[in-house]
Amino acid sequence: MALKKNRLSEDSKLLLDHIKAHGPQNLAQLRPVTGELESDLVKRLRNLRTGGWLEIVEGAPELRWNICSVAAPLFDLGLTPGRTGKGTPKLMGDMPARRQINVMEGKYEPKPFTPPRQGSLDFSAIASRGVRC
User: Fold this and answer.
1) Helices (H), the chain
2) How many C-beta atoms surround the C-beta of residue 31 within 10 A?
């Protein structure tokens, strides 16, 4: 995996430096660092966590954030950690061949629709009563 150059804002770098120097911090301890409103700070912390920079400390009586162990050495080098979350996409299977219609030859009649398995269209035999949900 190729690492990218980190493009953190100055406030985010200041926040990460503070957490690295003082260990796990709660929201009340982090607010004076950037001087942001609580909602803006929560959003910044959530984005840093999604980006792989921060992790939530498990087992603490209140919500505390700490530098992710993978991101700590990368911060000094100016690189970014890989994102957590989605892995490789699932395979879709074989795609059907494209249908090609030569409209210049004459009349075209598409093949009639056949259901994929017997009984799959049985629901259409039941009359609709128009009952509201």
Assistant:
1) 10-22, 27-34, 38-50, 71-77
2) 15
